[in-house]
Amino acid sequence: MTKPDADLFEFLLRMGDTTLILGHRLSEWCGKAPVLEEDIALANTALDLIGQTQMWLGLAGEVEGKGRTADDLAMLRDAWDFRCALLVQQPNGDFAQTIMRQFLFDHWHLDALCKLAHHSNDQVAAIAAKASKEVTYHAERSADLVIRLGDGTEESHSRMQAALDLLYPFVGELFTFSVEDLRPDYDAKVEAILTEATLTIPDSRFAHLGGLSGTRHSEHLGHLLSQMQWLQRAYPGDTW
Amino acid sequence: MAPTRLSRRHVVKPSTDQIWGWLDAVPDPEIPVISVVDLGIIRDVVWQDDTLEVTLTPTYSGCPATSVIEITVNAALRDHGLSNVTLKRQIAPPWTTDWLSDKGRAKLEAYGIAPPNPAGGPTRCPRCKSTDLKRISQFGSTPCKAQWQCRDCLEPFDYFKCI
Question: Which of A2, A16, A60, A151 is the least buried, fewest Cβ under 10 Å from its Cβ?
Answer without folding.
Answer: A2
